[in-house]
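Contributing new records

If you add data, match the layout below exactly. Sequence lines come first and carry their own label; structure lines follow with theirs. Keep one chain per record. Anything else will be rejected by the validation script.
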Amino acid sequence: MPTCIPALSTTQLSTLLTLCPSPWHQATLVILADTGLRVGELVQLRQYDLLVNEAPVFSLDVRAEIAKNHKPRTIPLTQSCQEAVKVLQNLLWRHTIRGGVWFAFPTNDPAKHISVRTIQRICKHYGETILHTRVTPHTLRHTFATRLMRKTNIRVVQQLLGHSSISSTQIYTHPSTQDLKEAIEFISDHAAEVKL
């Protein structure tokens, strides 16, 4: 049986993103939560992956060279995610030379990206201080998948997560108590009228 990975509730996710006091950390958390990117993919993004003609892209093309198993994919960006890109543009990228291939999450040297560990620490810090629970980049990826599963089918989730196998996607999908209740209410609403 696959391991059940914890996901944040809608309320927890909203609280985490709303109460995060650092604009660039908040933008980072939004991008993770709204794209389902793996942390290794996130840190390797280039500015040109997120911006075209100084404006946020509508869809993020995860390049084969940064994707796990070298499987490229396209992820449409939410409005919140596009706003997060604008925050990063104003806070982190304003001093970089236009036309460069600078990292979207740079160190002090825009030609070098921050570490996976740095993103893990950001998630851990705000999970503990805001939610009083453990939050990792993978928690946000799982939350993304869980939110999608409530609205679409597993094949769409598989493609957005970049999984080669549907069995990998199944690990991210588990019904919540609310999902179970809604399923029973659905069949109750559509059941044949039976006189007992």
